[in-house]
Design goal:
279 residues; mainly alpha; 0% strand
Length: 279
Protein backbone atom coordinates (compact mmCIF):
# COMPACT_ATOMS: atom_id res chain seq x y z
CA UNK A 1 0.00 0.00 0.00
CA UNK A 2 2.76 2.44 0.97
CA UNK A 3 4.86 1.55 -2.09
CA UNK A 4 1.88 2.16 -4.40
CA UNK A 5 1.20 5.53 -2.75
CA UNK A 6 4.86 6.58 -2.97
CA UNK A 7 5.06 5.45 -6.60
CA UNK A 8 1.94 7.43 -7.50
CA UNK A 9 3.35 10.57 -5.85
CA UNK A 10 6.70 10.25 -7.63
CA UNK A 11 5.05 9.68 -11.01
CA UNK A 12 2.72 12.64 -10.54
CA UNK A 13 5.65 14.87 -9.62
CA UNK A 14 7.67 13.77 -12.66
CA UNK A 15 4.74 14.47 -14.99
CA UNK A 16 4.40 17.97 -13.56
CA UNK A 17 8.15 18.55 -13.99
CA UNK A 18 8.00 17.63 -17.69
CA UNK A 19 5.12 20.01 -18.33
CA UNK A 20 6.86 22.84 -16.46
CA UNK A 21 10.30 22.45 -18.09
CA UNK A 22 9.85 24.94 -20.99
CA UNK A 23 8.32 27.71 -18.90
CA UNK A 24 10.84 27.14 -16.08
CA UNK A 25 14.00 27.09 -18.21
CA UNK A 26 13.13 29.66 -20.86
CA UNK A 27 13.50 33.27 -19.68
CA UNK A 28 10.89 35.83 -20.56
CA UNK A 29 7.87 33.58 -20.01
CA UNK A 30 4.83 35.72 -19.20
CA UNK A 31 2.89 35.47 -15.95
CA UNK A 32 -0.27 34.32 -17.75
CA UNK A 33 1.64 31.54 -19.50
CA UNK A 34 3.17 30.39 -16.23
CA UNK A 35 -0.24 30.27 -14.58
CA UNK A 36 -1.70 28.25 -17.45
CA UNK A 37 1.26 25.84 -17.38
CA UNK A 38 0.92 25.44 -13.62
CA UNK A 39 -2.79 24.64 -13.99
CA UNK A 40 -2.14 22.03 -16.70
CA UNK A 41 0.71 20.54 -14.66
CA UNK A 42 -1.44 20.25 -11.53
CA UNK A 43 -4.30 18.64 -13.45
CA UNK A 44 -1.97 16.17 -15.18
CA UNK A 45 -0.24 15.37 -11.90
CA UNK A 46 -3.55 14.76 -10.15
CA UNK A 47 -4.74 12.50 -12.97
CA UNK A 48 -1.48 10.52 -12.86
CA UNK A 49 -1.69 10.17 -9.07
CA UNK A 50 -5.26 8.86 -9.20
CA UNK A 51 -4.43 6.43 -12.02
CA UNK A 52 -1.46 4.88 -10.24
CA UNK A 53 -2.93 4.98 -6.73
CA UNK A 54 -6.01 2.90 -7.47
CA UNK A 55 -6.07 -0.88 -7.94
CA UNK A 56 -8.68 -0.66 -10.67
CA UNK A 57 -8.18 0.15 -14.38
CA UNK A 58 -8.55 3.71 -15.57
CA UNK A 59 -7.26 5.50 -18.65
CA UNK A 60 -3.52 4.72 -18.60
CA UNK A 61 -2.57 1.60 -20.54
CA UNK A 62 0.18 -0.81 -19.41
CA UNK A 63 0.08 0.75 -15.95
CA UNK A 64 1.44 -2.32 -14.17
CA UNK A 65 3.60 -3.71 -16.98
CA UNK A 66 6.95 -1.91 -16.98
CA UNK A 67 9.00 -0.81 -18.85
CA UNK A 68 6.35 0.39 -21.35
CA UNK A 69 5.34 3.65 -19.65
CA UNK A 70 8.83 4.23 -18.26
CA UNK A 71 10.37 4.21 -21.71
CA UNK A 72 7.54 6.35 -23.06
CA UNK A 73 8.05 8.89 -20.28
CA UNK A 74 11.82 8.92 -20.85
CA UNK A 75 11.26 9.70 -24.55
CA UNK A 76 8.88 12.54 -23.68
CA UNK A 77 11.20 13.96 -21.03
CA UNK A 78 14.30 13.88 -23.24
CA UNK A 79 12.44 15.44 -26.16
CA UNK A 80 11.03 18.32 -24.14
CA UNK A 81 14.31 18.92 -22.30
CA UNK A 82 16.48 18.84 -25.42
CA UNK A 83 14.20 21.13 -27.41
CA UNK A 84 13.96 23.54 -24.47
CA UNK A 85 17.74 23.76 -24.09
CA UNK A 86 18.13 24.25 -27.84
CA UNK A 87 15.55 27.04 -27.85
CA UNK A 88 17.29 28.68 -24.90
CA UNK A 89 20.22 29.40 -27.23
CA UNK A 90 18.14 32.07 -28.97
CA UNK A 91 17.29 34.02 -25.79
CA UNK A 92 19.95 33.23 -23.16
CA UNK A 93 22.76 31.15 -24.65
CA UNK A 94 24.98 29.08 -22.40
CA UNK A 95 27.76 26.62 -23.15
CA UNK A 96 25.39 23.68 -22.76
CA UNK A 97 22.62 25.19 -24.86
CA UNK A 98 25.07 26.17 -27.60
CA UNK A 99 26.44 22.62 -27.68
CA UNK A 100 22.95 21.10 -27.84
CA UNK A 101 21.97 23.57 -30.56
CA UNK A 102 25.01 22.67 -32.66
CA UNK A 103 24.29 18.96 -32.29
CA UNK A 104 20.61 19.57 -33.11
CA UNK A 105 21.53 21.46 -36.30
CA UNK A 106 23.74 18.57 -37.42
CA UNK A 107 20.96 16.05 -36.70
CA UNK A 108 18.33 18.16 -38.44
CA UNK A 109 20.46 18.63 -41.55
CA UNK A 110 21.29 14.91 -41.65
CA UNK A 111 17.61 13.94 -41.52
CA UNK A 112 16.46 16.71 -43.85
CA UNK A 113 16.40 14.87 -47.15
CA UNK A 114 13.61 14.68 -49.77
CA UNK A 115 10.38 13.04 -48.55
CA UNK A 116 11.77 12.52 -45.02
CA UNK A 117 9.48 13.31 -42.05
CA UNK A 118 11.80 16.16 -41.07
CA UNK A 119 11.56 17.72 -44.53
CA UNK A 120 7.77 17.36 -44.46
CA UNK A 121 7.60 18.97 -41.00
CA UNK A 122 8.85 22.22 -42.52
CA UNK A 123 5.75 22.28 -44.73
CA UNK A 124 3.77 23.38 -41.65
CA UNK A 125 5.38 26.79 -42.17
CA UNK A 126 3.97 29.07 -44.81
CA UNK A 127 5.88 30.51 -47.73
CA UNK A 128 6.91 33.68 -45.88
CA UNK A 129 9.05 31.77 -43.36
CA UNK A 130 12.63 33.00 -43.11
CA UNK A 131 15.73 30.84 -43.30
CA UNK A 132 16.22 31.17 -39.55
CA UNK A 133 12.68 29.94 -38.91
CA UNK A 134 13.15 27.00 -41.28
CA UNK A 135 16.39 26.11 -39.51
CA UNK A 136 14.68 26.24 -36.11
CA UNK A 137 11.92 23.89 -37.24
CA UNK A 138 14.38 21.54 -38.97
CA UNK A 139 16.59 21.39 -35.87
CA UNK A 140 13.67 20.74 -33.53
CA UNK A 141 12.05 18.18 -35.83
CA UNK A 142 15.29 16.29 -36.42
CA UNK A 143 16.15 16.18 -32.72
CA UNK A 144 12.67 15.08 -31.66
CA UNK A 145 12.44 12.42 -34.38
CA UNK A 146 15.88 10.96 -33.57
CA UNK A 147 15.04 10.73 -29.85
CA UNK A 148 11.81 8.92 -30.72
CA UNK A 149 13.63 6.44 -32.98
CA UNK A 150 16.30 5.74 -30.36
CA UNK A 151 13.65 5.36 -27.66
CA UNK A 152 11.72 2.93 -29.83
CA UNK A 153 14.89 0.87 -30.40
CA UNK A 154 15.58 0.79 -26.65
CA UNK A 155 12.01 -0.31 -26.02
CA UNK A 156 12.25 -3.22 -28.46
CA UNK A 157 15.60 -4.24 -26.97
CA UNK A 158 14.20 -4.21 -23.44
CA UNK A 159 11.24 -6.34 -24.50
CA UNK A 160 13.63 -8.94 -25.91
CA UNK A 161 15.96 -8.92 -22.92
CA UNK A 162 13.25 -8.96 -20.24
CA UNK A 163 10.85 -11.36 -21.93
CA UNK A 164 8.01 -8.86 -21.65
CA UNK A 165 5.05 -9.28 -21.08
CA UNK A 166 5.23 -12.83 -19.70
CA UNK A 167 7.74 -11.69 -17.08
CA UNK A 168 5.92 -8.49 -16.17
CA UNK A 169 5.69 -7.72 -12.48
CA UNK A 170 3.03 -9.93 -10.90
CA UNK A 171 2.01 -11.35 -14.28
CA UNK A 172 0.23 -9.51 -17.08
CA UNK A 173 -3.34 -8.51 -16.27
CA UNK A 174 -5.22 -7.60 -19.45
CA UNK A 175 -8.02 -5.90 -17.50
CA UNK A 176 -5.61 -3.54 -15.69
CA UNK A 177 -3.13 -2.89 -18.49
CA UNK A 178 -5.56 -2.63 -21.41
CA UNK A 179 -8.62 -0.92 -19.89
CA UNK A 180 -10.01 0.09 -23.29
CA UNK A 181 -9.65 -3.41 -24.78
CA UNK A 182 -12.52 -5.84 -24.18
CA UNK A 183 -11.20 -9.43 -24.43
CA UNK A 184 -14.74 -10.83 -24.22
CA UNK A 185 -16.00 -9.08 -27.38
CA UNK A 186 -16.81 -11.01 -30.55
CA UNK A 187 -13.91 -12.68 -32.32
CA UNK A 188 -10.80 -14.44 -31.15
CA UNK A 189 -8.69 -12.28 -28.83
CA UNK A 190 -5.45 -13.12 -30.65
CA UNK A 191 -6.85 -12.07 -34.02
CA UNK A 192 -8.14 -8.80 -32.56
CA UNK A 193 -4.85 -8.04 -30.79
CA UNK A 194 -2.84 -8.69 -33.95
CA UNK A 195 -5.22 -6.54 -35.99
CA UNK A 196 -4.96 -3.68 -33.49
CA UNK A 197 -1.18 -4.09 -33.45
CA UNK A 198 -0.97 -3.72 -37.24
CA UNK A 199 -3.29 -0.69 -37.18
CA UNK A 200 -1.23 1.07 -34.49
CA UNK A 201 2.07 0.36 -36.23
CA UNK A 202 0.65 1.56 -39.54
CA UNK A 203 -0.64 4.77 -37.96
CA UNK A 204 2.68 5.29 -36.19
CA UNK A 205 4.50 5.05 -39.50
CA UNK A 206 2.14 7.33 -41.43
CA UNK A 207 1.43 10.02 -38.83
CA UNK A 208 4.71 11.99 -39.20
CA UNK A 209 3.95 12.29 -42.93
CA UNK A 210 0.21 12.81 -42.54
CA UNK A 211 0.20 15.62 -39.93
CA UNK A 212 2.22 18.17 -41.97
CA UNK A 213 0.13 17.45 -45.06
CA UNK A 214 -3.12 18.01 -43.17
CA UNK A 215 -1.83 21.23 -41.60
CA UNK A 216 -0.54 22.53 -44.91
CA UNK A 217 -3.73 21.71 -46.82
CA UNK A 218 -6.18 22.66 -44.10
CA UNK A 219 -4.72 25.95 -42.94
CA UNK A 220 -2.21 26.93 -45.65
CA UNK A 221 0.54 26.63 -43.00
CA UNK A 222 0.87 28.13 -39.55
CA UNK A 223 2.11 31.65 -39.20
CA UNK A 224 5.91 31.38 -38.92
CA UNK A 225 6.15 33.55 -35.80
CA UNK A 226 3.53 31.36 -34.11
CA UNK A 227 5.20 28.04 -34.89
CA UNK A 228 8.70 29.25 -34.11
CA UNK A 229 7.64 30.80 -30.84
CA UNK A 230 9.74 28.83 -28.37
CA UNK A 231 7.04 27.07 -26.37
CA UNK A 232 4.77 26.54 -29.37
CA UNK A 233 7.64 25.01 -31.33
CA UNK A 234 8.68 22.76 -28.44
CA UNK A 235 5.24 21.27 -27.84
CA UNK A 236 4.32 21.05 -31.53
CA UNK A 237 7.48 19.13 -32.43
CA UNK A 238 7.23 17.01 -29.29
CA UNK A 239 3.68 15.94 -30.17
CA UNK A 240 4.61 15.42 -33.84
CA UNK A 241 7.40 12.97 -32.90
CA UNK A 242 6.06 11.45 -29.67
CA UNK A 243 2.55 10.45 -30.78
CA UNK A 244 3.72 8.23 -33.70
CA UNK A 245 6.38 6.68 -31.46
CA UNK A 246 3.77 5.96 -28.81
CA UNK A 247 1.53 4.29 -31.40
CA UNK A 248 4.46 2.19 -32.61
CA UNK A 249 5.17 1.09 -29.04
CA UNK A 250 1.51 0.23 -28.45
CA UNK A 251 1.37 -1.82 -31.63
CA UNK A 252 4.54 -3.73 -30.75
CA UNK A 253 3.26 -4.34 -27.21
CA UNK A 254 -0.10 -5.67 -28.39
CA UNK A 255 1.68 -7.97 -30.82
CA UNK A 256 3.78 -9.32 -27.95
CA UNK A 257 0.65 -9.89 -25.87
CA UNK A 258 -0.89 -11.86 -28.74
CA UNK A 259 2.27 -14.00 -28.88
CA UNK A 260 2.07 -14.59 -25.12
CA UNK A 261 -1.56 -15.74 -25.31
CA UNK A 262 -0.79 -18.02 -28.24
CA UNK A 263 2.12 -19.55 -26.29
CA UNK A 264 -0.12 -20.10 -23.25
CA UNK A 265 -2.66 -21.86 -25.45
CA UNK A 266 0.01 -24.15 -26.85
CA UNK A 267 1.16 -25.02 -23.33
CA UNK A 268 -2.45 -25.79 -22.43
CA UNK A 269 -2.77 -28.07 -25.46
CA UNK A 270 -4.92 -25.68 -27.52
CA UNK A 271 -3.24 -25.59 -30.93
CA UNK A 272 -4.00 -23.47 -33.95
CA UNK A 273 -6.61 -25.12 -36.11
CA UNK A 274 -8.53 -26.62 -33.18
CA UNK A 275 -12.21 -25.98 -32.71
CA UNK A 276 -11.37 -23.41 -30.02
CA UNK A 277 -9.93 -21.01 -32.58
CA UNK A 278 -11.76 -19.66 -35.62
CA UNK A 279 -10.55 -21.01 -38.94
Amino acid sequence: MFNRLLGAIVRAFLVMVVIAIPSALLPGTGADTKQMVALVALFSGALTFVEYKTDYPGLVEFRDAPPFNRVRFAILFLTVFMLTVIEKTHVAPTTLSTLFSAVGIVIGNALDFPYSPVRLATFMLNDSATDAQLLAVTTAAGTAYLISLLGLAVFVLLLKLRGWPSRARGGFNVWINLPTFDPTANGDVIVRLERDARVNIGMGFLLPFFIPAVVNIGSSGFEPLALTNSQTLIWTMTAWAFLPCSLFMRGIAMGKIAEMIRAERRVSGIEDGSSYLPA
